[in-house]
Design a protein that fits this description.
Elements lengths: L2 H10 L16 E11 L4 E11 L6 E7 L10 H8 L26 E9 L2 E2 L1 E5 L2 E10 L4 E11 L8 E2 L7 E3 L5 E2 L1 E3 L2 E3 L13 E10 L3 E4 L2 E2 L2 H4 L17 E11 L4 E4 L2 E7 L5 E7 L5 H21 L7 E6 L4 E4 L2 E4 L5 H13 L1 H6 L8 H19 L9 H11 L17 H23 L1 H15 L6 H12 L4 H9 L6 E9 L2 E8 L7 E7 L4 E6 L16 E4 L9 E6 L6 E6 L14 E3 L2
Parallel strand pairs: 1-14, 20-21, 21-23, 27-28
Antiparallel strand pairs: 1-2, 2-8, 3-7, 3-11, 4-5, 4-8, 6-7, 9-10, 10-18, 12-13, 14-17, 15-18, 16-17, 19-20, 22-23, 24-25, 25-29, 26-27, 26-30, 30-31
The protein binds zinc ion.
């Protein structure tokens, strides 16, 4: 089957894509109050942290854990060693000859984060560092339902920019400060998640942050949180028309508050330009980017596109719940944070809008729907990729017939490579970065687009909105999104969640034979792959007319609505999965049929498209 034939049918029948919770759920709560002093000359900082921890779990806690992420950026760290041992290391973290950049860091260039003192409710506690994790044996256990207050002093050094955070990025941003503070590890119904920082992905405890940052007064700061003393600080944050009093001394103390977040990022640079935009009936947007003539025009044009993207996501997922979002040049590539993102800035316009849309979409699928990304990376990267593709199609007026074509291609490439691991693999434990990337981003995105094929596009979009409504500000797990889809569609989906996310089973259906039975046409289909699927079958006649046949999968115990408006559909008998073949009859002679196509939308991730089409000789 030629590609143009598929494209033809996709265009003909292009689908209008635009157009309760866990029982006994509980989650911990944190209130951080931090004061940090940053020395911009040697990139060292000291801080104090008061952390009020509320144990909403049913359990008494004898230990807690903190993440000390900056310790990853030291020669010999797990991150360094993994980088040296993986077959396809991240190019951003390696030298031209594929050596670990972390291994080359000197004492003054590496990162660290150490607790220097720690008390619990006024009592000294014993604590020890295990790489990027601080293990704390409590002075007294925290009973279920009780609060406990930790007071910590800490000191850190910002590493040279290697990955996500760091100093002096390639584009000259001085400070990209993510994963910078001692961060309490999450304890939830699955237990502790004190994951070492090896490659990627995070999980945090929901709560309120109050952060005071003292830094050289020439630096403009942006990130998570609302600035409390804007009229004192200036730097573009002041109420328009306010005259900023000149501060004595070399530093300013910025005071931020962020309610109900699970992370806190900030970035600072002496040369940031700071623009502000208001989303109608939405948040205020801040743009912080280097005063570099190469990027100025694109960063101005990015601003109205960010407004459009914010409106798109708010409409299609649910209202953005904060009053502020900041797009900040920093880090490497792009990375999502609470109320903000760090992205590299020197990009072609389409790529700049693309990375903004992706990272902004993470505000929903990662931040507000705070899935444990280490365990369910496909739920944040995949869902984000899905919705940001739809957004890009709309705001960039893309004329692509199927915005997901490349996504499916990537998945097929992995599925047929023999390198695929199930999506239940921990984000650090993929044998290859290639396998992680396709599994999390592409296969995760297909989870949703293919769900739309199974339950119908309207039901998919309703599922996404309801999922957001029911699980915002929580830690949803895979079964949660599945249950929402089941309730909305009336279709049973256990088989889908299991096969797609917990196995590497593939989908391959084919048209085995088309033959004449008296005056009718008999079609014999076969199931070659192990993964079950319902089938849409399109029949195109010589006179140009079309009709479809729908073979539901028996274990779905339900049917989707006709996805092709104006095209007659016949629901044929259920296909029980174990049967390798299936027959149905078309009440027309074979001579009148031009072509028969399985899933003309190509939203079903069949790994072999060749056998999906039968054409008259
Ligand atoms: Zn992402």
């Amino acid at each position: 089957m030629t590609k143009s034939f598929f494209t033809f049918f996709t265009a003909l029948l292009s689908i209008g894509l635009f157009a309760q919770g866990n029982t006994n759920y509980w989650q911990q709560h944190v209130d951080y109050t931090m004061a940090v002093d940053m020395d911009v000359d040697n990139f060292q900082y000291t801080g104090t942290q008061t952390l009020v921890y509320t144990n909403n779990s049913p359990d008494e806690l004898k230990r807690v854990y903190f993440h000390l992420y900056f310790n990853a950026f030291q020669p010999g760290s797990e991150m360094d060693i993994r980088l040296q041992n993986i077959a396809d290391p991240d190019g951003r973290m390696t030298t031209a000859d594929k050596k670990s950049r972390i291994a080359t860091l000197t004492e003054s260039e590496m990162g660290y984060l150490h607790a220097t003192s720690l008390t619990q409710d006024g009592n000294q506690v014993s604590f020890s560092e295990e790489g990027t994790v601080l293990v704390v044996d409590l002075a007294k256990p925290i009973p279920s339902g009780a609060k406990s207050t930790f007071n910590m002093e800490f000191k850190g050094q910002v590493p040279l920019q290697i990955r996500r955070s760091g100093r002096n990025s390639e584009e000259g941003v001085a400070l990209s400060m993510s994963q910078w503070y001692p961060k309490l590890a999450e304890y939830d119904f699955e237990g502790w998640h004190a994951d070492p920082y090896i490659a990627r992905e995070f999980q945090g405890v929901w709560g309120d942050f109050d952060v005071k940052l003292t830094i050289d007064k020439d630096y403009t700061v942006g990130g998570t949180g609302y600035l409390q003393n804007a009229d004192e600080i200036g730097h573009g944050y002041e109420t328009p028309g306010t005259k900023i009093k000149k501060q004595k001394g070399k530093t300013l103390t910025w005071h931020f508050k962020a309610p109900m977040v699970h992370d806190f990022m900030w970035a600072a640079d002496p040369d940031y330009i700071h623009d502000i935009q208001q989303v109608p009936n939405g948040p205020v947007l801040h743009f912080l980017y280097k005063d570099d003539p190469k990027i100025l025009e694109n960063w101005k044009k990015l601003q109205p596109k960010t407004i459009e993207a914010m409106e798109f996501f708010s409409k299609n997922i649910g209202k953005y719940p904060y009053d502020q979002y900041s797009v900040i040049q920093g880090g490497d590539g792009g990375m999502e944070y609470a109320m903000s993102t760090l992205i590299t800035g020197n990009r072609k316009f389409g790529s700049l809008v693309g990375v903004m849309a992706h990272e902004l979409a993470h505000s929903w699928f990662q931040h507000i729907l705070a899935t444990n990304e280490s365990k369910h990376e496909w739920m944040d990267e995949g869902f984000t990729s899905f919705i940001s593709k739809l957004c890009m199609t709309e705001i960039m007026d893309s004329d692509k017939e199927n915005p997901f074509e490349g996504t499916y291609k990537g998945y097929r490439n992995l599925a047929l490579s023999g390198k695929e691991q199930p999506q239940t693999t921990h984000a650090d434990r993929y044998a290859l970065n290639f396998a992680y990337g396709i599994s999390a981003y592409s296969k995760g995105s297909i989870f949703l687009s293919q769900l739309g094929y199974i339950i119908g596009q309207d039901k998919l979009m309703e599922t996404i909105r309801t999922y957001y409504d029911e699980f915002k500000f929580k830690h949803p797990v895979p079964n949660d999104v599945k249950r929402v889809a089941e309730k909305i569609s009336g279709i049973e989906l256990d088989w889908y969640l299991t096969d797609w996310t917990q196995t590497t089973n593939t989908i391959d259906y084919g048209i085995k034979e088309v033959s004449t039975v008296e005056t009718n046409t008999k079609v014999t289909l076969e199931r070659i792959g192990l993964m079950p699927m319902p089938l849409d079958i399109l029949v195109v006649y010589n006179d140009g007319s079309r009709e479809t046949f729908y073979a539901p999968l028996q274990m779905m115990r339900g049917e989707k609505e006709n996805p092709y408006e104006g095209v007659e559909r016949t629901v044929i008998k259920d296909w029980p999965w174990a049967y390798p073949s299936y027959e149905f009859e078309i009440q027309k002679p074979m001579s009148s049929i031009q072509a028969i196509v399985i899933d003309p939308s190509q939203l079903m991730a069949d790994v072999n498209l060749e056998n999906n089409v039968w054409q008259a000789e």
